[in-house]
Specification:
The complex is a heterodimer of chains A (326) and B (120).
Chain A (H helix, E strand, L loop, with lengths): L25 H30 L7 H4 L14 H25 L3 H31 L4 E4 L4 E6 L7 H4 L29 H10 L3 E8 L5 E3 L2 H11 E5 L12 H34 L1 H5 L3 H26 L1
Antiparallel strand pairs in A: 1-2, 1-5, 2-3, 3-4
Helix pairs in contact in A: 1-8, 1-10, 3-4, 3-10, 4-8, 8-10
Chain B lengths: L8 H28 L2 H5 L1 E2 L2 E2 H21 L7 H35 L7
Antiparallel strand pairs in B: 1-2
Helix pairs in contact in B: 1-3
Classes of the chains: A alpha+beta (326), B mainly alpha (120).
Chain lengths: 326, 120
């Protein structure tokens, strides 16, 4: 640190500079204040998420149903196991980080190197897991039908288990043209067409008498409302206008569009922090190997990136609660 | 702070692993509760929210306290720095949450009781 401080020659005097009223170096104090402002940014996101959730309190998706994938267990309902594992990985990389900081206090270069390395690996695994989670979220599993009013209708069997669109659709021969720039007279391109048309889904629904419509509204027991067969047919024929599979920023098969929007923005913003944290950690890791801090006589830089890294973990604790648990 | 911990190496390491164990146990409890979702906790409302959600939020704050105090070492910082960081955040975040959640609930009521159908 001292290397970057300009001395005024008046350090002894109260206003002469070099005074540390908070007993923390300038760099560390500023890292703390950056963390406070960053925490407020995340709070802004999470509070906005809370706002939208309260606004759609009777129709928000159930997290256990959305995030129920686990690697190599295809088709097995594994609610939350994977995100719990991710949480552990991040907490553990926080532990190795604090161990690196601790080793730095003892000027133990070998241990700092080892623990920094483990921290970077943990961070990388976490970002990879997040990417996998996004892939599942974007791809979707069952598919749903959108209505005039912008709501979604999902399909269940008589036991209340989800039924995928692929299992019920009846193929109707038709011609669908995905417009592209080369086939248009004017500059024109439309969005990717879903796998099935709404007519195919409607016909498939009529052909399967044991399939019912589930709306996104909660009933008194806190479960999603399942309509009777007659109501289902009526609702589907009167309101259904489109097919949606997976999620993007304008629609998703899980619930209100805002659900996916906040998922992308909040976990994305957090993932961005993890990535930048990994990059900063790598820079500091090489500095440790090169002996920069050994020569400087202090491993305070490790402590400062440590603060940032713990903050990323701290934010995840809140994201985990508000996205996956509550 | 760097200097105050130098003498107590053993106990510091021990504390790190203790906090790790604590955070792990709390996370496991949260996940188990999240999977089982016990009926009593889900069906009991306390201050306009399910009791289960209150438990999740309190456990989260408990974890946040340990991360900030032990891992980020706020416990070793001067009182001034600690207060500047913690109270600023707590005050502004509570204010923001209060305003936005109240407003969200209000808009929910408007949608629910209005003359305009929004599920058509």
């Amino acid at each position: 640190m001292e290397a970057t401080v300009i001395r005024t020659g008046t350090e002894g005097r109260t206003w002469g500079g070099g005074n540390e009223p908070l007993k923390a170096s300038y760099g560390k104090m500023m890292m703390w204040f950056f963390i406070v402002s960053d925490a407020l940014t995340f709070s802004g996101f999470l509070a906005a998420y809370g706002f939208s959730r309260f606004k759609f309190i009777d129709s928000w998706p159930i997290a256990d149903e959305v995030f129920n994938h686990f690697p190599f267990l295809h088709g097995v309902e594994a609610p939350m196991y994977y995100v719990a594992l991710m949480t552990f990985i991040l907490i553990f990389s926080s532990v190795t980080m604090v161990l690196a900081v601790d080793a730095g206090h003892h000027m133990n270069k070998g241990k700092v190197t080892l623990y920094m390395f483990l921290t970077i690996i943990g961070g990388a695994i976490f970002v990879g897991s997040q990417a996998w989670e996004w892939k599942n979220f974007i791809q979707g599993e069952y598919g749903a039908v959108t209505t005039n009013g912008g709501n979604i209708l999902q399909f269940v069997n008589t036991e209340g288990e989800r039924v995928a669109l692929a299992d019920i659709v009846v193929s109707i021969p038709h011609e669908r043209i995905e417009k592209s720039r080369s086939s248009g007279l004017w500059f024109a391109e439309n969005e990717t067409l879903p796998e099935y048309t709404i007519e195919e889904v409607k016909a498939g629904f009529e052909a399967h008498p044991d399939v019912l419509v589930r709306t996104k509204m909660f009933d008194e027991e806190g479960e999603k409302t399942i309509l009777s067969r007659e109501e289902s047919l009526k609702k589907l024929n009167a309101e259904a206008v489109g097919v949606v599979q997976g999620a993007n920023l304008t629609e998703n098969e899980y619930g209100p569009p805002l659900f996916a929007d906040f998922f992308f923005f909040i976990t994305g913003f957090h993932g961005f922090h993890v990535i930048s944290g990994v990059i900063i950690n790598i820079i500091i890791f090489f500095n440790v190997i090169l002996g920069t801090y050994e020569r400087r006589g202090s491993y305070e830089m490790v402590e400062k990136v440590g603060l940032y890294w713990h903050f990323v973990d701290l934010v995840w604790v809140f994201v985990f609660t508000f996205f996956y648990l509550v | 702070m760097a200097h105050s911990t130098t003498h107590t190496h053993e106990s510091n390491n021990k504390r790190i692993w203790f906090v790790f164990a604590l955070l792990s146990v709390v996370t496991i409890v949260e996940v188990i509760l999240g999977i089982i979702r016990p009926d009593i906790l889900v069906n009991t409302n306390f201050l306009a929210m399910k009791l289960l959600n209150w438990i999740f939020i309190i456990l989260t704050l408990y974890k946040a306290y340990y991360i900030a105090w032990a891992f980020m070492h706020l416990e070793g910082e001067s009182k001034g720095l600690r207060r500047a960081v913690v109270w600023t955040a707590i005050f502004l975040i509570s204010y923001l949450m209060f305003i936005l959640l109240t407003e969200g609930d209000y808009i929910f009521d408007i949608y629910k009781n209005s003359q305009v159908a929004w599920d058509f």
